[in-house]
Design goal:
Elements (H helix, E strand, L loop, with lengths): L2 E5 L5 E5 L4 H22 L5 E7 L2 E2 L2 E12 L2 E4 L5 E5 L7 E2 L4 E5 L2 H37 L4 H33 L2 E3 L4 E6 L6 E2 L6 E5 L3 E7 L12 E6 L6 E9 L10 E8 L10 E9 L3 E5 L4 E3 L2 E8 L4 E6 L1 E5 L3 E6 L6 E5 L10 E4 L19
């Protein structure tokens, strides 16, 4: 039996044979043609789905915080008498400026003057005793050399001279001590500054070391703020604070955090923070109300376009692009904040990963994608809109 073959326009193999064997040969030809088409489709490369991608970068969100406080002296000195006595005079008041060495207060010096007089008299008597003892010793020394005295008398004269000399030195020390106590009746300021408080009035009897006045030194000023605990992220000296007068915002100065209280205030539960000002203007007087502004940054976060957000069950998710084979996988993420055009991600992404930013609606796990070039004038970073804190 003879037959011939031919190809139809669709590429299928047709069999032309005699009517008696046409049907079996025609079926076999059709099966061979379909198998060839399937193999052609399997070997042909599959093109990826075009999508817009971005690369994830870590960043920090920065925000400005303003707190009100007041100007205080960097160092405050409490002045008091070294001896007890009754205050006779206090020529200064709160708010007065004092210079170094200026008299702040005086005690009644009557007792101390009498002590100086007695010490001087005792010193003169001691000097007379020394002269007498020295003359006796010199006489005994001459007689001892001539052999007209005994050794016990010589030793007694020597001992008397040494005792008189010790008494003289003691009298001199007592006079010096009495003169010091007389000087201590005058309280003088050791630093230049402004009197901020007084604790005693003329006529009062005070004890040694009791606080009489308090002087704020002029060699430094601090801006003092009460700061909540959640804002205490930076250590002293790291953050720069801009301080301005509340009634005159144009008057400002820069400063650094100099001291943070180790314990919270029992009433307000806030911590006192002292900011050392650098070259404060003269208008920032002690007690003036100021406003301090400082920039704080959050923990490391990632910012991605809002169009990249999809859903995995009930959790938000994004499509991660595998750079090795350009396939995508769905990964759940944690959202920190929603912005109008971006989403702030706190967990779920790693810096350097590539995600699908546009075209997430028709994707499925394992699907190949073809990343499109970024639009003109835009970068590939997903964190471009996040504000990065310095350092």
């Amino acid at each position: 039996m003879t037959f011939r073959t031919a190809l139809d326009p669709a590429g299928l193999l047709l069999a032309i044979a005699r009517p008696s064997l046409g049907r079996p040969l025609l079926g076999l030809a059709l099966l061979l043609g379909l198998a060839a088409c399937d193999r052609a489709e399997e070997t042909a490369p599959t093109a990826g789905r075009p999508v817009q991608v971005v690369q994830v970068e870590a960043s920090k969100l920065a925000s400005a915080i303003e707190l009100s406080g007041e100007i205080q002296a960097e160092k405050t000195v409490a002045l008091g008498f070294r001896i007890a006595g009754r205050i006779a005079e206090r020529p200064i008041n709160v708010g007065d400026r004092v210079a170094a060495g200026q008299i702040i207060a005086r005690l009644d010096p009557t007792i101390e003057r009498n002590a100086v007089t007695a010490a001087r008299a005792a010193l003169e008597a001691a000097r007379g005793e020394v002269v007498t003892a020295r003359n006796g010793f010199e006489r005994q020394e001459r007689l001892m050399g001539q052999g007209f005295t005994t050794r016990p008398r010589f030793d007694q004269a020597l001992k008397a001279q040494e005792t008189a000399q010790a008494a003289l030195e003691n009298a001199e020390a007592q006079l010096e001590l009495a003169q010091d106590r007389l000087r201590f009746t005058e309280l003088r300021s050791e630093v230049a500054g402004v009197v901020t408080a007084r604790s005693a009035e003329p006529g009062e009897v005070v004890q040694p070391g009791q606080n009489i006045v308090q002087v704020a030194r002029e060699d430094g000023r601090d801006a003092v703020f009460n700061v909540p605990a959640q804002l205490l992220e930076s250590k002293a000296g790291e953050q720069i604070v801009r301080v301005r007068l509340a009634e005159a915002p144009g008057v400002s100065a820069l400063g650094r955090i100099r001291e943070v209280a180790p314990q919270a205030d029992p009433v307000t539960r806030t911590f006192q923070v002292r900011v050392g000002l650098q070259d404060p203007p003269e208008a920032m007087q002690l007690g003036a109300t100021v406003v301090g502004a400082i920039e704080t940054s959050s923990a490391v976060i990632m910012s991605i376009p809002a169009m990249a957000l999809t859903q995995s069950g009930v959790s938000p998710a994004v499509w991660i692009v595998d750079p090795a084979n350009s396939t995508v996988s769905l990964r759940p993420i944690d959202i920190l904040r929603f912005d109008p055009d971006h989403v702030i991600v706190s967990q779920g992404l790693m810096p350097g990963e590539t995600i699908v930013a546009a075209g997430v609606q028709a994707l499925h796990p394992g699907q190949r994608v073809a990343p499109l070039p970024p639009p003109a004038g835009t970068g590939r970073s997903a964190a471009a809109s996040a504000v990065k804190a310095p350092g």
